[in-house]
Amino acid sequence: MTHPTPVNPNIAAAFAPPVMEARRWLQGVSFPAERPLINVSQAAPVDPPPEELRRVMADAALNRADAHLYGPVLGNTDLRDTLAQSWSRFYGASVGPERIAITQGCNQAFCATISTIAAAGDEIILPVPWYFNHKMWLDMQGIAAVPLTCGPDMVPRADDAAALISDRTRAIVLISPNNPTGAEYPAETLAAFFDLAKARGIALIVDETYRDFDSRDGAPHDLLGRDGAEDVLIQLYSFSKAFRLTGHRVGAVLTGAARMAELEKFLDTVAISTSQIGQIGAEWGLRNLSDWLAGERAEILSRRAAMQDAMAQTGGWDIVSAGAYFAWVEHPFRIPSNELAQRLVPEAGILMLPGTMFMPEGRGKQHLRVAYANADSAGIRAMAQRLADWQP
Question: Do 283 and 164 fall into the same domain?
Answer without folding.
Answer: yes
